[in-house]
Amino acid sequence: MKAAMRILFTMGMVLLVAALLPAMGAGEATQQDAGEIVVYSPFNDQFMQALAAPFTAETGIEVLNVVISTGETVSRLRAERQRPQADFWLSARPAILQGAFEEGLIAAYNPNGAANIRPEFRYDAAHITAVGTYPLVFFYNTQAIARANMQAPTGDWAQLLSPAYRDQVVMPHPATSGTAYSVITTIIQAHLQNNMSEDEAWQFVAGLNGAVAQFTRSGRAPQTLVAQGEYPVGIGFYDAVWQLQQEGFPLEVVIPNPVFAEPYGAAVVADAPNGANARRFFDYLLTPRAQAVLTQFGNYPVVAGVNPPVGGVSVPTEQVIDIDFLWSSANRRAILDRFQEVTQAEPQ
Amino acid sequence: MNTRGSLILREPTVVVTVIFMITVIALFVLLPAASMLLESVRGFTLHRYVDFFASRYFRHTLYNTLLVSGLATLFSMTAGFLFAYTVTRTDVPLRRLFSTIVLVPMLLPAFLIAFALILLLGRNGLLNQALEIVNPGGVRFNIYSPWGVILAQTLSFFPMSFLLFAAALSAIDPRLEDAAQDLGGDYWYTLRRVTLPLMAPAAFGSALLLFMFHASAFGAPALLGGRGLFFGNATMLAPEAIIQTLGARSDWGMGATLAVVLVVPSIALFLAGEYYLKRRSYVTVTGAPTAFRPRPVPSGVKWTLFALCLLISLFIAAVVAVVAVGAFTQTWGINYSFTDRHLRTALTASRRSINNSIFLAGSGGFAAALFGTLSAWVFARKSFRGSRVVDALSMIPYALPGMVMGLGFAIAFSGNIPGLIMSGTGLIIFLNHVVRRMPYGIRSAAGAIRQIDPSIEEAAADLGGRPVYSFVRVTMPLLKDAFFASFVFGFINMMTDITAVIFLVSPRWRLLSVDVFNAIEATRYGTASALSLIMILSTLIVLAVARVLGGVRLGGKEAG
To answer: Is B321 among the domain residues?
Structure first.
């Protein structure tokens, strides 16, 4: 019996180790693997794979994406500062990139092809390079708005404060979502640029709070909630609306006045394990080929000579609000605190 | 045999096994649990606990956890008893079919059931669309509510109370009920005064276990409770702990605090439930009902039971059906035409995740079953001082909610302890998996071994068989079923686990279950359905193969 037991035990241990080794080996191979980059981005898997496919085919570098919101990316980059896990960060507004650069989370890089970027999307700062853009829009579900007997949004921000809109609007929460931060800075700047005070802007936010039924965690949740008819009206970026329109959801878009239409940028993570690959990926993003993939997902190109998304709305340039990203970045903490104080709302 | 001398010389196998086991438990159970506890008081402060109880929002998560779990426990026990009674004690038609269908939710993780409920009862769900046709603008189901969470939790866990009640009911001697009726008691009197009182121990034990499982739930409240539950706009403890750590706040200290608040009562309840069930010898979490002499019940009762069981069974069938149909539907709620694009997207976008999940569930399930079976065998055949302590210790990971094991692993092995950095690897997921499922292997093998009389092995030896022969020809076949059972349990739970692995996945080691969860959360229902279908099919294939090879039946489900 004892011999049998020993044989069984030895067999078991050998098999256990055999089962362990491949897992361990694959785990070890993760560090400093030259053929990969890890990308943090709020873009979904399908989008990221379509974007990465031509790059991988050309360079052999595999793109591993993590779907994660802007606010979450910043805290994760902060937490991983001593041991960075990601190489590249795709899609953050200039104000957010400015803050991350000041904290030492991202490295400055001037990608090849930056010269092809259209003048209106160029930034002087070396750590901010535009990659794509889409406007911040109002959108509504045609069926839900008919059910609720509401007037469709016209693009006038003040309309959102009318009694008919009470608890009918969904937008993201600025603490977690870069989208929502853009909404709030647009409101404040619109007031300041019309010679009104910041307090008046916050009075407007307090009124808007009455219209908002839910502040979502993710910047792309309002689009799906409105698409499904959970709420009639939403505020958010156009790309996700465009994608849902392609799926057949009954969504309509209105360009607000003023409209936030700043481009989004990308960045190489500071001390990225695969920094060289990340820089190649950055170069690739500004090629006409990559820019064309962006337009297949409702994004507008920033380089000349690439067509906008098929059937996409056009943004009247005179409605676009000019926001100083240095102001936006420097006041971020104060704006978020004031927002919390005014609305008392938690992200859901 | 030398009866004196040191244990290491007499029983090297036992010593090696015990040392191995203690090392595993110390490194992969006690260390993560301690790391979590320390994280919650990091900086030698109790301020996080003070903050927890000072914050109305956090107190609401606790109240919601208690109330939702209490109601879900009540409903799952009612439904479980209904099915168990129907199957074991009545002549209701189709009861064999009911007893099979009732086990189907055991294969499905709670978040998948919540997802199916969205497809059925969401704003664009089938039932609400039907209501819109029948009564435009009228009342609708609202699945994003505490009742939606309770429904998902009940469907997910009532099979467990079914198994407990069925085992307890089959342990009752039918002659007790016959005697009551012979003495003039009618049906209701017998049920009230004989059958139900005899169920009290099983009911109490399973209530404790179910409450613990419901309280540590993550998937259903995360998907359905985002707009607040009974109290305020707060969710439950487990999802809130995940939001605190993995969300924008990245506050691991607060997440650990929430987990401690959750885990202390959970372990107490689990131990109490286990102890109670064991002491009353109504154990057998895995015991399925065997054949019973059907007895006639009043026709009103009979057809009421039939209708209720049929309704619940149809609902279970619908849960599986909508996911399968959803995988091939253009856009759920909008355009029901056929497409294979979701399946193609799922197979390309999640190719790595599918491979990772199958590889880790296969190798991890194998290691857990092997190590569990071996340990059980060593412990059963050899008694030594402290064997009961080691046995009790090895059960701890079974009592810990998955979230605690995931959070603990993430804190302990991410560089807080020099030399023990495993974050970002497949190894951390593999080890977490093995440690959590090993207790089931030990338990199911221990049950099988107790049934093997040592004299069978001795008889083989006496008849001239060498030890190897008696082991290969006698012991192995007898342990085979236990091995396959724990492999299947490990494989299925690994494929469908979300609460632990959500802390352990990394860009290189993404998993199928997490991809499914993310797709649901992003409301990409087509992709989510296609991925779910792949997940369900892979578990069914493994179950079918194990059934052919090892005669495996559906067994237990673990806490979220």
So the answer is: yes
Contact between residue A212 and residue A166 where contact means Cβ atoms under 8 Å apart: no
B3 confidence band (pLDDT: 50, 70, 90): very low
Nearest residue on chain B to A78, judged by CA atoms? Answer: B250
Burial zone of B291 (CB within 10 Å; 0-12 exposed, 13-18 middle, 19+ buried): exposed
For residue A11, pLDDT over 90 is answered with no
Residue ranges making up the domain that contains B339: 19-41+335-560
Residue A33: predicted pLDDT: 47
Task: Confirm or reject contact between A44 and chain B (CB < 8 A).
Answer: yes
Whether the CB of A62 is below 8 Å from some CB of chain B: the reply is no
Q: pLDDT, tens digit, for every residue of A103-131?
A: 999 999 999 988 899 998 999 898 999 99
Are B164 and B305 within one domain?
Answer: yes
Residue B283 three-state SS: coil
B-chain CB neighbours of A30 within 8 Å are 424-425, 506, 508
What is the Rg, in whole angstroms, of the alpha carbon atoms belonging to chain B? 25
Same domain flag for B213 and B79: yes
The string of pLDDT tens digits covering residues B299-318 is 888 899 999 999 999 999 99
The per-residue pLDDT for B554 is 55
- Claim to verify: residue B322 and residue B342 sit in the same structural domain: no
Pairing of strands A136-141, A233-237: antiparallel
- How many whole angstroms separate alpha carbon B193 and alpha carbon B76? 23
C-alpha to C-alpha distances, B265 to B65, B83, B538, nearest whole angstrom: 12, 29, 35
In the structure encoding, which two tokens stand for residue A100, read together?
């991350």
Each residue's pLDDT tens digit, A16-42: 555 555 544 444 444 444 699 999 998
Query: Nearest residue on chain A to B524, judged by CA atoms?
Result: A224
Which of A69-73, B5-9, B88-92, B137-141 has the weakest average pLDDT? B5-9
The verdict on B188 and B225 lying in the same domain is yes
Q: Which of B112, B123, B117 is nearest to B333 (CA)?
A: B123
Which residues sit opposite B133 in a β-bridge?
Answer: none
Number of structural domains chain B divides into = 2
Residue B559: which of B157, B116, B223 has the closest Cα? B157
Report which of A348, A144, A152, A168 is spatially closest to residue A249, judged by C-alpha positions. Answer: A144
Place of tokens 């929502």: A180
Whether the Cβ atoms of residue B52 and residue B58 lie closer than 8 Å to each other:
yes
Nearest by CB: A30 against B122, B371, B424: B424
**Among B468, B449, B384, B457, which Cα is nearest to B10's?**
B384
Q: Give the burial string for A239-254 (b: 16+ CB within 10 Å, else e).
A: bbbbbbbeeebbbebb
Across-strand partners of A266?
A90
Pair B214, B339 in one domain:
no
Q: Taking residues B517-535, report their average pLDDT.
A: 89
To the nearest whole angstrom, how far is the Cα of A253 from the nearest Cα of chain B? Answer: 19
Phi and psi at B162, nearest 5°, equal: -60, -50
Note whether A43 contacts B: Cβ–Cβ < 8 A: no
pLDDT at A101 over 90: yes
The answer for A 165-184 residues in CB contact with B (under 8 A) is 175-176
Q: Which residues of B543-558 are buried (b: 16+ CB within 10 A; e: fewer)?
A: beebeeebebebbbbb
**CA–CA separation, B330 and A172 (whole Å):** 27
One domain for residues B460 and B553: yes
Greater pLDDT, A118 or B469: A118
Domain end (from B289, B306, B326): B326
Respond yes or no on whether ipTM tops 0.85: no
